[in-house]
# Entry
Amino acid sequence: MFKFEILHQSTQSSARVGRITTPHGVIDTPNYVPVGTNGILKAVDHTMLNQHDCQLMFCNTYHLALHPGADVIAEAGGIHKFSGRKGPIITDSGGFQVFSLAYGSVASELKSQGTKQTDNAVIKIDESGVRFRSYRDGREIHLTPESSIQLQKKIGADIIIPFDELPPFHCKAVQLKKAFARTHRWQQRSLTEHQKAVNNQAIYGVVHGGLDKQLRQKSCQLLTDMRFDGYAIGGSLGKQRSDLFDVLDYCKPSLPPESAKHLLGIADMPSISEGVKYGIDTFDSCYPTRAARHSVVFVGDEKIKLSSGKYKRDFQPIDPNCQCWTCKNSTRAFVHHLFKAHEPSALTLASIHNVQAMMDKMKRIRKQIMNNEI
Ligand SMILES: [Zn+2]
# Structure
């Protein structure tokens, strides 16, 4: 059922316009994938999402497994029935969150220069997987390649991700190599588990290797040999944008050009504009909705902070060129007022706009690729 087709290959770069077909509908690519951690975007319901051409939503297995639990979702008939979303959904493996517990986020790690020691939430990391304690009720959970896939089977997204190991950003070459070998063993185990009951789900292999060119290319080779349905660029992507572009450059020649490619966790405008040139088809990030909840909204290629006093009497739409519900029906002054009055609707109106702004950006990019301008 899963299928990726390239509809147009740009003559300027490796950018392409394509289409992913899944059991729950199609995804025009390149596209932005908003993050709905718990099965829905924060402050925005599915009716607003469908209206805004959101063709793929990213949910987090770690959060869904801790609450309500994958069994509850399976009992409801899967994540689509449980959440009411009709369109395609992708889930991650839970690995990213678990390793963030162990090592801290890249941002906090950069601040502490890698001195942060393992959090006591993570009990043990070994060849079998990771043992950690639930932050909700303290119960011990053993997340393994097999159990991560079983959780993702119960959740039932259209696209799933194998369980992988994320070494800390500041790790020594020897540690990176060790993690590199293990993450590919874990991905093979994940794939084997998935193949026992495919259930119309596609699985993307995750390319690792940090900023090391040889390791990145070896990872592409290993995953291509395993024959995943698509590929996601993951692992450490460095601390500045040029590191990311280096990684994309290393991976580009080493992955099958006809396969769908996803960039994990990065979807800021400059990264998307450049990323599509390396043949990236989908980008997920919680940034647009998180920024909206902090009153930061996108206007063209700029951002404005609506809670600022200068918008108190600004009676134009957030973006006069935007066709979202917020821009068609309200003004900067009104949304500014809602933020100041701590109305929850402020988060909703700003989030609707930012998701629409991302979708509009992707539509423009697809058109530019069709015209061989990118
Ligand atoms: Zn708008």
Notes: The chain has two domains: 3-92+147-285, 300-374. Residues 318-319, 322, 324, 326-327, 353, 356 surround zinc ion (CB under 6 Å). Residues 112-118 have pLDDT under 50 and may be disordered. The CA atoms of residues 36 and 114 lie 30 Å apart.
